[in-house]
Design a protein that fits this description.
single chain, Rossmann fold, Biosynthetic Threonine Deaminase, domain 3, 4 domains, six-stranded mixed beta sheet
Length: 506
């Protein structure tokens, strides 16, 4: 690796806008995990995110000619706010392109940071649309594009976090630093500094299981493009990592940990209990990965740092986070259990549950022979759900463990009500569509009248995108035509017709 990254990081201009954030010891997590856990509190940074470090470092080093031409970027999140704040401080004209799906809350936040120096342009339904348009405008107008992650000066600005961590930890031993990974700017900067100053410290990337472009790219030895990415951790939902960030990560990062939505929700709660701060999902990603990694270690007492990199959480999302936290903490397991419709069966099943707390119970008579029960049961530790399922099976109750099943958690548990004799030729699809005023009606109108809607479940979760579960009555000889029509809609979707919870309950 070229050694000039060390110089770039040490000479980065970030502290005109940023501050050195705290490295806080987390006593509760430390006791539970058997390690010394520290949180690097970038959620307390100005703008509640680390992103302004890289944006300001890049923008503050523009030549006079480039600065006069103005800057442009595409983002609806923390990077946009960092660019806006930097533009205001440096007196630069900034054009920020955001998707039309961007909530007004985020648009207002960007405008508040940049004031009169920032112009916001709405374009396209997705970040990819906004990015492509911003790139075109940069070429047409001669503006300087401020990339959210794939730029050496942006990477160096983020690397100043590592400088602070090593200075704050001092002469104490430090075993690993955990970093959320989207496009790779943060982990590249952290690794570029740590591996030249204290190479014995591991740098571990953390990604969502459905947004793991960097982990896949490193494993493949080349940059891969994900067809779809999960949107829960929207701050790290990147389909392709940068060229420079991939090069640095492949060379310097020691490994990756993948986590799911439930584990991130549990990490948000962990940090709240420690600090009374509420992280956004991307901000809690490092803590979730640290927990997974720590539980796999045979050596206790290691010193571990998680960078809590953002706290721009929509308040409306807290309901969803709270619901999913119990499963993420292994405090709840959910099952689909088949019980014979015989006298005494229900009582026998309840006896197996014993003194465990029941968190949810859904039952509706629908068949003369068997009953399908959707049940939530309180658990004490990881692995309990598998043991409980095995116990039910041993006593003759067919069981499907749905504890980590997103479709069951997002939809099925809210709509268990029995099968309908009218739902002939039904196929089931789960859609993602942008959460904006009128989006639901636009979606319904786009579906068209060709096939009857026999099931519909939508629930606002306070995100930029929502999940909708739709049942369509489509004769078998029209299935191919239906798939083509749904593809033309342009909404990401997945066929869930074979899902076990759907087959059992709906």
């Amino acid at each position: 690796m070229p050694t000039d990254y060390l110089k770039k990081i040490l000479t980065a201009r970030v502290y005109d806008v940023a501050r050195e954030t705290e490295l806080d010891f987390a006593p509760g997590l430390s006791k539970r995990l058997g390690h010394q856990i520290y949180l690097k509190r970038e959620d307390l940074q100005c703008g509640f995110s680390f992103k302004l470090r890289g944006a300001y470092n890049k923008m503050s080093q523009l030549s006079a000619t480039d600065a006069a031409a103005g800057v442009i970027t595409a983002s609806a999140g923390n990077h946009a706010q960092g660019v806006a704040l930097s533009a205001e401080r440096l007196g630069l004209n900034a054009l920020i392109v955001v998707p039309v799906t961007t909530p007004q809350l985020k648009i207002d936040a960007i405008r508040a940071r940049g004031g009169a120096f920032v112009e916001i342009l709405l374009h396209g339904d997705s970040y990819s649309d906004a990015y492509a348009h911003a790139s075109t405008l940069a070429a047409e107008q001669g503006r300087i594009f401020i990339h959210p992650f794939d730029d050496p000066l942006v990477i160096a600005g983020q690397g100043t976090i590592a400088v602070e961590i090593l200075r704050q930890i001092g002469s104490r031993a430090l075993d690993a630093i955990f970093v959320a990974v989207g496009g790779g700017g943060l982990i590249s900067g952290v690794a570029a500094y740590v591996k030249q100053i204290r190479p014995e410290i591991k740098v571990i990337g953390v990604q969502m299981v459905d947004s793991d472009a960097m982990a896949r790219s490193v494993a493949a030895g080349k940059r891969v493009v994900l067809h779809d990415v999960g949107l829960f951790s929207d701050g790290t939902a990147v389909k392709q990592v940068g060229k420079e960030t991939f090069r640095l990560a492949r060379e310097l990062v020691d490994g990756f940990v993948l986590v799911d939505t439930d584990q991130v929700c549990a990490a948000i709660k962990d940090v709240f209990l420690e600090t009374r701060s509420v992280l956004e999902p991307a901000g809690a990603l490092s803590v979730a990965g640290l927990k997974v990694w720590a539980k796999q270690q045979t050596r206790a007492g290691q010193a571990l740092v998680a960078i809590t990199c953002g706290a721009n959480m929509n308040f409306e999302r807290l309901r969803f986070v709270a619901e999913r936290t119990e499963v993420g903490e292994a405090k709840e397991a959910i099952f689909a259990v088949t019980i014979p419709e015989q006298r005494g069966s229900f009582k026998r099943f309840c006896a197996l549950i014993g003194k465990r707390s029941v968190t949810e119970f859904n039952y509706r008579i629908s068949d003369a022979q068997v009953a399908h029960v959707f049940v939530g049961i309180g658990t004490q530790k990881p692995g309990d759900s598998a043991r409980i399922a095995a116990q039910f099976e041993k006593h003759g109750f067919a069981t499907v463990d749905l504890s980590h099943d997103a479709l069951a958690a997002d939809h099925i548990r809210h709509m268990v009500g029995g099968k309908s004799p009218l739902a002939n030729d039904e196929v089931l699809y789960q859609f993602e569509f942008p959460e904006r005023p009128g989006a639901l009606m636009a979606f319904l109108q786009a579906m068209g009248p060709a096939w009857n809607i026999s099931l519909f479940h939508y629930r606002n979760q306070g995100q930029d995108y929502s999940h909708v579960l739709v049942g369509l009555q489509v004769p078998p000889n029209e299935r191919r035509q239906c798939k083509a029509a749904l593809q033309a809609l342009g909404y990401p979707h997945r066929d869930q017709t074979a899902h076990p919870a759907y087959r059992l309950f709906l």
